[in-house]
Write a structure and sequence with these properties.
- By secondary structure, this protein is an alpha+beta fold.
- It has a single domain, classed as Nucleoside diphosphate kinase-like domain (Alpha-Beta Plaits).
- The protein contains eight helices and four strands.
- A four-stranded antiparallel β-sheet has the order 2-3-1-4, sandwiched between helices.
- The radius of gyration is 16 Å and the shape is globular.
- Bound molecules: inosine-5'-diphosphate (IDP) and magnesium ion (MG).
- The site of inosine-5'-diphosphate (IDP) has 9 residues, from loops.
Length: about 160
């Protein structure tokens, strides 16, 4: 078990369809801790850095067109093995192959409109977090002691 930070981004289809709260809630329900969030308009330069590994593939132009087509919500979720956990919450790249209960199965129907991005390794997490956030925008230092919100002063 390793404490990790995972980079996750809601793609423009999620925001256009009003799925933002439902999707963020999935990560909260899982028990992950939100440590950064912002709405971003991804331009072509950022898209080409984010998806550098896919440059030259047949779907790359449509992917850039899609990710730059409207606002994106960029997030960092922290928790035990957060990178793998987020990928499992998200599901297979192709919503048709994703398991029921995953975000991509439950909300998506096509890989070109698959709702959400999640980093796939510790290295991509570091790289992608740095692309979207300044270090001071990551608020990982807060304690999540819910008791004091139930009883003043805690139990
Ligand atoms: P991932 O998002 O599950 O990590 P990647 O292989 O990294 O999947 O691909 C990045 C994104 O490119 C996918 O989320 C999807 O939007 C798009 N994509 C990947 N493969 C295809 C494809 O075969 N056709 C169309 N779009 C694709
Ligand atoms: Mg990927």
């Amino acid at each position: 078990m390793t404490l990790q930070q995972s980079f996750v981004a809601l793609k423009p289809d999620a925001i256009q369809r009003g799925l933002t709260a439902d999707i963020i809630h999935r990560f909260e329900l899982k028990g992950l801790k939100l440590v950064a969030l912002k709405m971003v308009k991804v331009d072509e330069a950022l898209a080409s850095q984010h998806y550098a590994e896919h440059i030259g593939k047949d779907f790359y132009p449509s992917l850039v067109n899609f990710i730059t087509s409207g606002p994106v919500i960029a997030m960092v979720w922290e928790g035990r093995d957060a990178i793998a956990v987020c990928r499992r919450v998200i599901g297979n790249t192709d919503p048709e192959k994703a398991e029921p209960g995953t975000i991509r199965f439950d909300f998506g129907q096509a890989p070109q409109r698959n709702i959400i991005h999640g980093c796939d390794s510790p290295e991509s997490a570091v790289r992608e977090i740095a692309l979207y956030f300044k270090p001071e925008e990551i608020l990982s230092g807060w304690n999540r002691d819910i008791d004091k919100w139930i009883v003043p002063g805690g139990l």
